[in-house]
Amino acid sequence: MSNIEFMLKDMVVKTIHNEVFPECKKMKNAMQVLHKKLCEVQSVNKYLHTRIESLNVDLTEARASLVDVQCKLAASDKSISMLQDENDDLQGLNDDLQGLNDDLQGLNDDLQFGMDEIANISNGYTADEPAFWDKLVEGVDPESPIAKRTKKKARYSKWDDRMRDLFALGDKLIWIGDTMQIPRTEVENMFPHGKSMFQFQRCYGKKADNLRFNVEYTKDMVQLTHRTFTKVQLESLYGV
Fold first, then answer.
1. Residues 221, 181: contact at Cβ < 8 Å?
2. CB 205 within 8 A of CB 212
3. Domain with residues 157-237, CATH architecture
């Protein structure tokens, strides 16, 4: 081998040893670092994949829950609608019942008017006179409605006597303008057999009769305002 060839060979060996090998070593180290990073990325990717699958499961369950809630909400809306319809039906029935009650009240008023008419035209008697009621029920079954009504009517005295009973209260009868005031206890004394306020109103506050009073009351006091006469006129009429 010539000297030139030997020198060239030596230069090549030195170049490979000094330049190529160090670069190869660097490349190997770089490859190891890249491989390590790749493993880390793969690990992260695997975790993300698992997490995505878990989130998909949660999302599916959430959608199922939402559908369930929507179904329940729809059922609730339907129930509310049905309840509203039933409430409307009940309101309609209540209105019908109120109408029937008004009709019944009208019939009752007509019946009351009829009884009062009988009282005003029969044999010169009035509904306030016991003799009228005795004659009205002659030969009538004592358990019949008219007989029972007569017994109740017979409890009431004549109108003049009723007015004198009021004025006989003396100091317990207080005038405020043309309005009388008397204690509730006196009403109970006048009608001691129960339902005293009801009987008092029947006697003194009969509806649609301008010779009677408008009656208002509280738990302690009763007020009477005559529908036609003033205090002076009443005292003159009944000799006070």
1. yes
2. yes
3. Orthogonal Bundle (1.10)
pTM of model > 0.70: no
204 within 8 A of 212, measured Cβ to Cβ = yes
154-163 pLDDT, tens per residue?
Answer: 444 578 888 8
pLDDT single digits (tens) 2-52:
777 777 777 777 777 777 778 788 888 888 888 888 888 888 889 998 999
**N residues, the chain:** 240
| Gap between the Cα atoms of 200 and 192, Å rounded | 11
CB atoms closer than 10 angstroms to residue 240: 14
The CA-CA-CA angle for residues 233, 234, 238, to 5°, reads: 120
Q: What is the DSSP string of 157-207?
A: --HHHHHHHHHTTGGG-EEETTEEEEEHHHHHHHS-SS-HHHHHHHHH--T
Give pLDDT < 50 ranges for the chain. Answer: 113-114, 117, 119-128, 154-156
Strand partners, 221: 183
Domain boundaries of the chain, sorted by first residue? 1-120, 122-154, 157-237
Could you give the dihedral angle defined by the CA atoms of residues 118, 121, 122 and 124, in that order, rounded to the nearest 10 degrees? 140
CA dist., res. 216 & res. 184, Å (int): 11
